[in-house]
Write a structure and sequence with these properties.
alpha+beta; 4 helices; two-stranded antiparallel ribbon; three-stranded antiparallel β-sheet; 140 residues
């Protein structure tokens, strides 16, 4: 190895790059797939959605959500509708992607809002407050 310094440097550099890339890939896999969800009892959370004839995801109807809520096999159920809206005002308009959620949303996830109050069942009644849970702001 002392005589072939170029080969040794290339081998050490290659090993260093491979080990670094392997570490980065493992960090991503660990963060996305292996780490549990940041909710109490994440193994008990399920997402229910419909499918179309060509196996694409589809929304389920509110009547179906009510039927699922009556099922004794589910502890809680919450509905969410993702929607894109445009925010206008003083600055450039920006697109927001958020979701309208049922009052049971936070209870089902076992979390409390970081700011403000949680959504109450009175907010869901006609004339109640419309609550928009914003996930991402200023999506280009």
């Amino acid at each position: 190895m002392w005589r072939e310094r170029g080969f040794t440097a290339a081998a050490v550099l290659t090993l260093g790059l491979v080990i670094g890339i392997n570490g980065a890939i493992f960090s991503i896999v660990e963060a996305v797939l292996l780490r549990p969800l940041p909710f109490p009892e994440p193994d008990r959370l399920v997402e229910i959605y419909g499918t179309t004839e060509d196996s694409n995801r589809a929304e389920i109807y509110l009547a179906d959500v009510d039927k699922l809520a009556a099922a004794r096999s589910l502890a809680n159920i919450a509905a969410e509708q993702v929607q894109s809206v445009t925010l206008t005002g003083v600055e450039e308009p920006g697109r927001l992607i958020g979701g309208f959620v049922a009052s049971s949303y936070f209870k089902t996830l076992g979390v409390t809002p970081a700011l403000g109050r949680s959504i109450s069942p009175e907010d869901e009644k006609p004339g109640g407050t419309e609550c928009l849970l914003v996930e991402l702001c200023r999506v280009a």
